[in-house]
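lol so apparently i was supposed to do this last week
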Amino acid sequence: MIADILLTKDVNTISTSDTTDVCIIGAGVIGLSSAWRLSNAGFRVSIIDPAIGHGASWVAAGMIAPVTEAYYGEESLLKLSLVSADSWPDFAEELQQATSMSIQYLQSGILMVGKDADDMAVINELAEFQQSLGLQSERLSAREVHKAEPLLASDVQGGILTKVDAQVDNRLLVQALVSACNRSKVSFIHQMVREIKSVKGRVERLLLQDGTEILADKVVLAAGSWSSSIQGVPSELWDLIRPVKGEILRLKVPDPLSVLSHIVRGVAKGGVIYVVPRQSREIVVGATTYEKGFDTSVQAESVYTLLRDARMLVPSVCQAQFNQAAAGFRPGTPDNAPIVGRTSIEGVFVATGHYRSGILLTPLSAMAVTELLTTGTINGAMSSFSPQRFEKH
Ligand SMILES: Cc1cc2nc3c(=O)[nH]c(=O)nc-3n(C[C@H](O)[C@H](O)[C@H](O)COP(=O)(O)OP(=O)(O)OC[C@H]3O[C@@H](n4cnc5c(N)ncnc54)[C@H](O)[C@@H]3O)c2cc1C
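anyway here it is w/ flavin-adenine dinucleotide bound
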């Protein structure tokens, strides 16, 4: 018996004993995919979250874009992203088989385009950077981008095509992961964890919002942007993860002929924008990036700017029906890379800080968490992303 609900007169009592080996805090894509994999590896898993699947994972755009998301100074994150992107086709297939649900994983490719000469200078610099890293990306003239994507504005001047970049419908992904967890007998506890309680450097209990305490021998902290703010988290995680707000729009185009065949990203008069088309005729337009704590409001200015910039590249977006504007929190870290590994509290493991790439990194993160809990170490690409990398020597 490794986790249990304490039965004492000081706390609420729920009689579930001998049922759990691992408690996962947070049911976003990282917690859910880890729960599914751990359960299939033979662990009895409970996942605790008051709002299952409704964090950043619900808000995101669903791009699996290691090449387009390659940034200066983030070469080790790029390597990780390429490995995870490679494992996406099998992961998607396995999840769909397990649940009989489609998650619309599509290798649609990304067209990164520019509107004027200054925008094209940015695009050309990006193309050179991608090519210097040996990434597959192809420069296209104005004629070639319009041939590839006839819905682009006529004055788009050219771009880059990255065929390996892909997408998944992140909301279908969340739903499929919940279903897969259910089928694998993962227990869901609809509560907030208030505190991780440890004794002599070893985790002992989780205190839940309603006062219930769960005996816990192994805990995976996967609470996204909230991972640093739970009482009792290991000291090396204090202040390490911060919420980076992103606002995003969901529209629906009126007819199948108005659906783009690629994800379109671009620079439009200096504004950076993406438009992600779904098979369902939904289009996702995003996203803002700024730091304002846990403020979930959507600014009218952001809606205006996103639509204005998207329309400069794809004029037909303004004929679409406006369905939703939402804000979510990317779990940011000091080096923009995830944190997966063991912590200074024995029995507490962490899988968080996936910043702008949590959907992309889902298959690899779940695999690394499973390897960690099964063998005690991570040997693959994720091995250099432990929390210990931030230790001051
Ligand atoms: C606008 C936007 C666009 C994005 N687009 C992309 C994209 O195209 N591609 C990509 O790869 N990534 C994208 N991302 C990033 C991606 O969404 C995140 O990296 C990823 O969803 C993080 O997953 P997670 O499971 O760690 O966190 P979350 O999905 O935020 O889940 C954390 C969960 O923890 C729970 N929780 C919090 N505190 C507690 C507690 N005390 N007790 C119990 N549970 C708790 C929350 O309720 C939540 O459900 C985007 C993000 C945003 C905001």
